[in-house]
Amino acid sequence: GAPGVDAWLANSETTAARLRRYYRVREVTVVPPPVDVEGLRALASTPKGDHWVTLSTLTEYKRIDLAVRAFSASGRSLIVIGDGPDRGRLESFAGPSVKFAGHLDDASRGALLAGARALLFPGEEDFGIAAVEALACGTPVVAYARGGLTEIVEADRTGVFFDEQSVPALNAAVEELAGLPIRRDELVAA
How much is the pTM? Predict the structure, then answer.
């Protein structure tokens, strides 16, 4: 093995805090993952549709099941962008208002994201690249209030948080977002 560590790097303050706690590290440099915000900002004038989106690899820990259940119950339109091993299970209980787009090219993904009412981020992540992409193209975020999303989303300005991973909590946050005077230029600037 290596004789020692020269420097500690983390992708978010959330990860840096974990390194400080578990490895008793004092100095950690945060280097956020690269995101093509310039390319996405060009989409910020896309007219908003009536759909909401999730954007993720479809694995159980991402908690896309929560969004699928919530939108199946409410009847709101949800487009699930992404693919993965959990897709079959998710499709098995999805209602008619939930559509699965699968893996999309950058242009198609960007267009759906820019035209969405909001991005739903129901899981806990160290960073959350999809949330940065959403804000860059003028789309607010409804997120679980844990992990890296708390560093990206500003409550009641660029999105809404929910504290419990449950269908009622997620649907309440969606309702809350619908009543906020969110400005696209502020989302893009964030």
Answer: 0.93
